[in-house]
Amino acid sequence: MRRTGGFPNLDDLAGGAGRLDILCRCVTSALACSHGIREDVRVHLVLNNQFTVQFDGANLKRLNPDERSTAALIRTALENREKAIGHMPAESTPGVSIRRMGFAETVNRLKTETTPIQLHETGTPIVDIDPPDDPLFVLSDHHSLTNDEIEQLGDIAEHQIRLGPMILHADHAITIAHNYLDTNGYNQY
User: Fold this and answer.
1) Cys bridge to 60: 30, 95, 168, 171, which one at CB 3.0-4.6 A?
2) Strand, coil or helix: what is 83?
């Protein structure tokens, strides 16, 4: 998630673009693997609690492992936001779309097809739960979730989990969550 306005400045991702660098690293961590894309992954970035940019690994094209090209995909989605009518998405590039949906609408839409799990530093250790079939890991960028977001999520989250004893950057947390799922809860290597 990111709270910023306007179009991202690709020359200042960590400053003037509102820490877009963090979101770009999260997208790359969620979707990229060595020599390919995780086709079974979708990433939803809630921006300003007004828009959700979705990356669909099954249809994604032109995702490179650098922050600047990922930021360009996000910027292109934002440039197409006027084409998003209501909650209907507008595809900006193959596998990237934008919807007029904030946090609550996005999570409520996804809860019907996934198991929402909030990543939180005080949650149950991840090793104490079995991996769900279709998890929706919910985490924030460098800002904590707002009280409203926590309340909305608390009503639907199946679990509140932590990945280890230390607080991690969001992109690192995504990598660990993938490893947990890839190994069936650290049981298969």
Assistant:
1) 95
2) helix
User: Alpha helices, DSSP H only, in 55-165?
Assistant: 67-79, 103-110, 147-154
pLDDT by residue (tens digit) across 57-71? Answer: 999 998 998 888 999
| SS3 (DSSP) at 90 | strand
User: 104-182 is classed in which CATH architecture?
Assistant: 3-Layer(aba) Sandwich (3.40)
Mean pLDDT, the chain, rounded, equals 89
C-alpha closest to that of 139 among 166, 116, 165: 116
Q: What angle do CA 111, 167, 37 make, to 5 degrees?
A: 55
What is 20-102's CATH number, 3.30.470.30, 3.40.630.30, 3.40.1280.10, 3.30.230.10? 3.40.1280.10
The 10s digit of each residue's pLDDT in 120-164 is: 888 999 999 999 989 999 998 877 888 888 888 888 888 899 999
| ∠ CA 90-148-154, rounded to 5° | 95
Quick one: which of 119, 127, 116, 118 has its CA closest to 167? 119
Q: Where are the CATH 3.40.1280.10 domain residues in the chain?
A: 20-102, 104-182
Total-model pTM: 0.89
